[in-house]
TrEMBL record:
It comes from Fusarium albosuccineum. Pfam families: adh_short (PF00106), DUF3425 (PF11905). It comes from the Eukaryota. This is Short-chain dehydrogenase. Belongs to the short-chain dehydrogenases/reductases (SDR) family. The keyword Oxidoreductase applies.
Length: 470
């Protein structure tokens, strides 16, 4: 499998020191830690984890927690959460550690679950019918469980590697892909993925990744830890330059004849009025025409790459801002009436229409497309947004619900790229890992014109004309 994605900017977060020590007796807490470490079947591992966890707790008691201990504690916590969920499901914890274990759900068949059984852990039909290891049953995300079980059964993913990423104790405190559990082990809202986990999860499917960026050196630095492999390549791309788009495609085609997934992600937002290197209005030229040309030049490769199990896919990043306006065919440059958000809304509607027309033209040939709203994410995309507007957003309680961290923002894109549930069901606008539903509600929903009957085909013809492809 081959995948091409436009790279995005990344941001870091800092952790503040603890300001007050816990009230429980240290002796009591050390005993709790000792009992907790019993989830590890090996006495050697249990003792080693106990020693390190006790040291971390001792530093915490002294109001001197060490940030360097966090990666270790995260992996201890995920093991505890997995063991707790196994116990809740009635599994013997030791079966999680045996290489040849088979999930009890595979041989127990349909059964009446106790009323106290968490809904998030209830077995799906796939868990009951596809042979798999029981460690894949412990995650409180039914779709995640199904997707991984499918991928492992089809030899698209090695669950041993995934298990090592998630549960191998991080004694070295090195940064690596991980899952983080903040709350109850059975509660999906208490789990979070690290920045590296989702791209690594796609990498674990065996895909070869081609990542594009205007500055390849910066992109490699941002994705350090994922790039030390022959299956991750970088391509230079500036979507505001048609020459750069063509050079990028030529570079890709010189390296590969296969492309299964194209994720069109990069862009600009609400910038001052301007023109691209080829004379197009900046936002329409970058966010739509650049992506359109990239797809068009890769179209034949995508059409030649489907398999019976997995058709080719295009994921186009749109936005809830498409609600700011439709495409102005009579004045695409908005000359004399330019307004940053009006222009951005036009380009995001164009993204939806492009995905819909790809589906209409090529869906029956095994090439499908989706438009995706990732959510509001604090990245460099917002560099042109005035400070006062950002402050207003921060105080808006309703709008605040739309904000996502980068892991959450990637979820809908990853769903569109690889989910078996969407196989053959393109031409849709997705948000919050599901199909968006009307009406338009500002931060959620979909505008009426997004599903206009004539807009997609009309935009397609106009794009071919502007790019001299007709």
């Amino acid at each position: 499998m081959q995948a091409v994605s436009n790279a995005t900017d990344q941001a870091g977060q800092s952790t503040s020191p603890t300001t007050s020590a816990p009230q429980a007796s240290p002796d009591v807490m050390f005993e709790v830690i000792r009992q907790t470490c019993e989830v590890f079947e090996s006495p050697d591992i249990s003792q080693k984890v106990f020693a390190l966890a006790s040291k971390a707790y001792g530093d915490y008691v002294l109001n001197a927690p060490r940030l360097s201990q966090l990666p270790f504690l995260i992996t201890v916590n995920i093991n505890i959460a997995m063991a707790k969920n196994a116990t809740r499901m009635g599994f013997k914890r030791e079966i999680l550690c045996l290489e040849d274990s088979i999930s009890p759900f595979n041989y127990s068949g349909p059964s009446q679950l106790p009323a106290s059984f968490p809904q998030s852990l209830e077995p799906t039909s796939i868990q009951q019918n596809v042979i798999h290891h029981p460690w894949l049953d412990v995650f409180p995300f039914p779709k995640f469980r199904d997707n991984v079980i499918y991928a492992v059964a089809a030899n698209l993913m090695d669950d041993d590697d995934l298990c090592a990423d998630i549960s191998e104790i991080n004694y070295d405190n090195a940064e690596r892909p991980c899952l983080i559990v903040w709350g109850e082990s059975w509660d999906p809202n208490g789990w979070e993925a690290s920045v590296l986990f989702l791209p690594r999860a796609i990498y674990r499917t065996g895909a070869t990744l081609y990542l594009t960026a205007r500055d390849v050196k910066k992109a490699k630095t941002a994705l350090d830890g994922l790039t030390d492999t022959s299956r991750v390549h970088f391509l230079q791309l500036d979507l505001s330059s048609l020459e750069s788009v063509r050079a990028c495609v030529q570079s890709f085609k010189s390296q590969s004849t296969q492309l299964n997934i194209l994720i069109e992600n990069a862009g600009v937002m609400a910038c001052p009025e301007g023109r691209t290197k080829d004379g197009f209005e900046t936002q329409f030229g970058t966010n739509h025409l650049g992506h359109f040309l990239l797809f068009y030049l890769l179209k034949d490769t995508l059409l030649n790459s489907p398999t019976p199990e997995f058709n080719s896919r295009v994921v186009v990043l749109s936005s809830c801002a498409h609600q700011a306006g439709s495409v102005h065919f009579d004045n695409l440059t908005l000359e004399g009436e330019y307004e940053p958000w009006k222009s951005y809304g036009q380009s995001k509607t164009a993204n939806i229409w492009m995905a819909r027309e790809i589906e209409a033209k090529f869906g029956e040939r095994g090439l499908h497309a989706w438009a995706v709203h990732p959510g509001s994410i604090a990245t460099e995309l917002q560099r042109h947004v005035p400070a006062e507007l950002k402050e207003r957003w921060a105080k808006d309680k309703e709008g605040g619900k739309a904000w996502k961290n980068m892991e959450q923002g990637a979820a809908t894109t990853v769903l569109a790229a690889v989910s078996p549930e969407l196989e053959g069901k393109g031409g849709l606008y997705l948000e919050d890992t599901q199909v968006a539903k009307p009406p338009a509600r500002g931060i959620t929903g979909v505008a009426d014109w997004a599903y206009d009957d004539d807009g997609p085909s009309r935009l397609w013809a106009k794009s071919l004309e502007l790019l001299k492809l007709a």
